[in-house]
Amino acid sequence: LLGVGTMGSFMHQQCYMGVTVGRYANRIANGLFEVNGEAFQVSTNQAGNCLHGGEEGFDKRRWNIESQSEQQVTFSLLSEDGDQGFPGNLEAHVTYTLTDDNQVSIAYFAKADKATPVNLTNHAYFNLLGAEADLDCRSHRLTIAADQYLPTNEVGIPLGTLQDVKGTGFDFRNEKPVSEHFLQDEQQIAAKGYDHSYLFDAHRDVSKPVARVVSPDGKVHMSVVTNKPAMQLYTGNWLAGAPNRRGGEYQDYAGLALETQFLPDSPNHAEWGQPSCILEPEQAYRFSTTFHFAF
Questions:
Q1: Catalytic residue among 93, 123, 196, 269
Q2: How far apart are CA 226 and CA 204, in angstroms?
Q3: Residues ≥6 apart with Cβ < 8 Å to 56
C-alpha cells in the first residue's frame, strides 16, 4: 500500500491515500442533485464539481474507534444534517477485518434520518511489488469482469451513456498488463490514464472476484470481491509530488486504486439501472469489499 510516514504528510497529500471516502465517493456534477423533488447544492471542490464528498469529506474527519480486537476494528462517524450540503443525519460504520487466510475485508453500514445519497469506498493505492518499488502500476497485470465502462469528460463527469469495453483499451475481461493499451484512446488521454468506472453484471455471483491484479514477477496475486454495483479503476495519474514514507515523493502511476462504489454522478442518472444510491430512512446501507491476497 502506498502511504505516508507522518500525520503532517497525510494532511499535505491530496490523493485520498488510503482513506474512507464519503458521503459520496467519486463525482457529482456541479454538486447538484434532487432527492424526492427537492434540490440540493453540495460542496464543490474539483473543477466546479463535488469530488469524494466535498471540501470536508469523510477523509478529512477523525473517526471514532467503536470496537477493536487483534484482527478487527470498527470505526464510526456521525455526519450531521447539512454536512457539506447533504441532507439528513448519517451514522456510518466501517469495519476492517484481517482474516487468517490473507483477506482484508471492509464492511460498510450506514443509516440516515432523511433520504440522502450515500456511496462509501476505500481509496487504497496498491503496488504489489511494494510501495517504493521502481516499477509502477502499469507493469501489473489486471483483470476486470465487466462488459461496460462509463466514458467521462475532461474533468471526470460522465457523458451519460455506458459503453461496451469490447474493441477498446478499457477491455480487461482477459488478463493483460495495464500498460498494454495505456493512453491509446481519447478517453485515457483526457484523464492522463485510467480514471473510469466499470459496471458489473447486476445478476452476477457476488461471491466471485470482480477484479484480479498480479504483480509483474507473478509472486503476488490480489482479487477483489464486492457486492457494490461498480468499480473505479484509477491508475494514480496525478500522484506526482505526494509524500511517501521515506520523506521523498511518489511519482505518477506509483500505485493503482480499485474503488468499489456506485457509478459517478448516480444521483442524476436513474436511467443507468443500477441499485439506487439514495438511502431512505427505513433502509440500511450494507456493502462489503474484500481484498484477497495469494503468495
A1: 123
A2: 11
A3: 43, 83, 84
- Scored b (16 or more CB within 10 A) or e, 215-232 reads bbeeebebbbbbbbbbbb
Tens-digit pLDDT profile for residues 88-118: 999 999 999 999 999 999 999 999 999 999 9
The residue whose grid cell reads 458521503 is 23
176-226 pLDDT tens trace: 999 999 999 999 999 999 999 999 999 999 999 999 999 999 999 999 999
Give the cell for residue 219. Answer: 509472486
Is 196 a catalytic site residue? no
Q: What is the pLDDT of residues 55-97, one digit of tens each?
A: 999 999 999 999 999 999 999 999 999 999 999 999 999 999 9
Return the amino acid letter for 13. Answer: Q
Radius of gyration of the chain (CA): 18
DSSP assigned state of 190 = H
The amino acid at residue 134 is D
Count of other CB atoms within 10 angstroms of residue 20: 23
**Burial per residue of 49-82, b for 16 or more beta-carbon CB atoms within 10 angstroms, e otherwise:** bbbbbbeebbbebeeeeeeeeeeeebbbbebeee
Closest C-alpha to 289, from 96, 127, 148: 96
Out of 52, 93, 259, 269, the active site residue is: 259
∠ at Cα 77 (73, 81), nearest 5°? 165
Burial class (CB in 10 A: 0-12, 13-18, 19+), 158: buried
Half-sphere exposure of 64 (CA within 13 A, CB side): 9
Catalytic annotation on 12?
no
Dihedral Cα 224, 230, 235, 236, nearest 10 deg: -100
Question: In which residue are the cell numbers 487504497 written?
Answer: 124
- Structure-block grid coordinates of residue 124: 487504497
